[in-house]
């Protein structure tokens, strides 16, 4: 039987992954036949340096992850602790220049009492840790701001609840947040209702005092009856400063509330960071510089507050009675 020729076999079928050069003339022996697509891909990579960036926006892109260094075990705990320590040192050093701060402060502490505060990502729960740090915050706040006043508002069930009236006595404020059974979390929070209630309690305050709202927010949603941006515009008009400490994550509306009113916003990373963010708001905030259009015409140099020092009336003034004893003055009265 004559030997079978190799050209009779079907090795060039579409199902085969092997391509052979069966040129009987012997030219190009041992070389694979190049495909047109491979040549195009090879030419595409030529003439392009490796250092050239593919997009123009990469030139100004900050690679923030390169500043975080891992330890030998591959953990980021060391870098996180270093960032927190830098923040503590920055607060302890304080500003290098003189800053005009508010003496008389009025603060409304808004506590999130929604169902999300029962999560156990912070021990024992978010709710219990919030109450503990709130009591420590109130004691430290009154220690550094003896002329200030604090009110407490809660967010629960889509409503704003007044927990404690505005008071300058720290014992009254601590008493209002000490009864845990009256503050059990339930329902959803409402930022708009809580801010409106806090704002209504500060409408009668004088202009020389600061108006501040501190919100401890642990939810990722807010149940509002209307447009919260209208409430934001009202707070800006009334010069109310809003600061938020978020326990879950950053929300766009929370960031806008803080940025547009001049407050502070922070997201808690752990229990110690939660306390640091709260105690950053204990010192009095710096006053904003007044523009030329906002300075009164009668007092162009400074915005001063009149204090009631007593003055002696002349002898020809009519007789008056003492306010406490209702007796006439034997000497010329003194008015304040």
UniProtKB/TrEMBL annotation:
GO terms, molecular function: zinc ion binding
Under Gene3D superfamilies, the record lists: von Willebrand factor, type A domain
Q: Which GO terms describe its cellular component?
A: transcription factor TFIIH holo complex
**One GO-annotated biological process of the protein:** nucleotide-excision repair
Q: Which PROSITE patterns match?
A: VWFA
Query: Organism source for this protein?
Result: Panaeolus cyanescens
Q: Which domain of life is it from?
A: Eukaryota
Protein name, UniProt field: VWFA domain-containing protein
On whether Metal-binding is a keyword of this UniProt record, the answer is yes
What spans are recorded as compositionally biased (Basic and acidic residues)? 35-51
